[in-house]
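Hey all, quick one. A colleague (J.T.) asked me to put the adenosine monophosphate job into the tracker so the inputs and the structure tokens live in one place instead of scattered across chat threads. No bug as far as I know, just bookkeeping. Sequence used:
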Amino acid sequence: MDNCTFCKIIKGEIPSYTVYEDEKVKVFLDIDPSTDGHLLLIPKEHKETLFDMDNELLTYMLQLIKEKLYPLLKERLHIEGLTISQNNYLGQDVKHFHIHLTPRYESDGLKIHYDKSHLSKLEDVYEKLK
Ligand code: AMP
Ligand code: ZN
């Protein structure tokens, strides 16, 4: 897709620190890492969000994390944990589906801050969801 940063990375128009690639996906270092070894796993075909993704490809990507990417990070960077996350719509800066693989280390000091002052009562939320 024109004007998509990650499509440009796939086409080689923007450079990336690619650590794995095959016919379906590409994996490269996040340019603004939260911790050492922060990777982005993306499909080669442009899809915007999780809800546009083919289930089979999602399964393939999870399998890749389990069997290749986690072992790679563990072996080479000695990571002590791995946070897997991905944003859809709000909070999603790049509108090309991607999974963040954020290594955790005892010493990383990573803190995720949530402003809890706008939270509803747990019971009210539950009433809407049950
Ligand atoms: P999100 O906010 O979930 O859409 O995350 C987008 C991620 O893409 C951010 O963590 C950015 O640092 C990363 N990013 C943006 N442009 C590039 C790039 N050219 N190469 C590598 N990572 C990038
Ligand atoms: Zn794209």
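Adding what we noticed when we looked at it: Strands lie at 18-21, 25-29, 39-43, 81-85, 99-104. The mean pLDDT is 97.
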